[in-house]
Amino acid sequence: MGGADMIGKFAVALRAGGLVLLMGAGGCAYGLSRTAEIINPERLARVRSVTVAPFRYPHRWTGFLRGIYRSAEIDPPAEEKVERIEATFLPEGVLVARGYEVLKWPAAAGEMIWREEAPEAGDRAALLKVLTSGAEAVLMLRGRSECREIRHCVAEVEMKLIDAEGGSVLWKSRAEGETLIGQGNEMLAAVEEALADLTGPP
């Protein structure tokens, strides 16, 4: 196959894949699952202001790209395609809709590391910066997503809400979102599902 023919076939397939995304964006079919635990309901009920620690996640879109190549009857590339996506705005938007006051992450707080154990000295220093900024709690997230095919994308996310004053975990959740298109909708679905139990301050 000539170079021009190959480029032409790939362009047609790419436009077709883009059309699938655009047509599906208005009414996506999601598969959702969630596990959540409220650890300190009394303190959680008093939280009014929250800041979200910067959230970036790896998105593997190898399957999507290979599907485009196969649609064009071209051998797909062997290398993996992974990019990191900034998505702090996703949980921020959900929290605002629930009635929380969402404050900007203070730059002086630096970066908090996700830990299974109690906060370390660096984390406590960051929490102090958060507290002085006016936020009562920190929402931390970690997650990843993957488009296994052109029309099949999956995301998973873990969250925990940390008391800015004492560093204890008030609530935690884990969720998965699955959609027939990409464009980040799978992570949005997972984030919304993970936050389903946080109905907002009274």
Distance between the termini: 65 Å
Number of helices: 6
- Which sequence of SSEs, written as H and E, runs from N to C? HEHEEHEHEHEEEH
Structural class: alpha/beta
Question: Could you walk me through the main structural features you see in this protein, from its secondary elements to its overall organization?
Answer:
This protein has one domain (3-194): 3-Layer(aba) Sandwich (Rossmann fold), CATH 3.40.50. The chain is built from six helices and eight strands, in the order H-E-H-E-E-H-E-H-E-H-E-E-E-H. It has helices at residues 3-24, 41-46, 62-71, 89-97, 121-133, 185-194, and strands at residues 31-38, 49-52, 56-60, 82-86, 101-103, 137-149, 152-163, 169-179. Strands 1, 2, 3, 4, 5, 6, 7 and 8 form an eight-stranded mixed β-sheet that branches. A hairpin with a 5-residue loop joins strand 7 (152-163) and strand 8. It is elongated, with a radius of gyration of 20 Å.
Q: Briefly, what is this?
A:
By secondary structure, this protein is an alpha/beta fold. 35% of the residues lie in helices and 30% in strands.
Note the main attributes of this structure:
202 residues; 8 strands; 6 helices; Rossmann fold; alpha/beta; eight-stranded mixed sheet
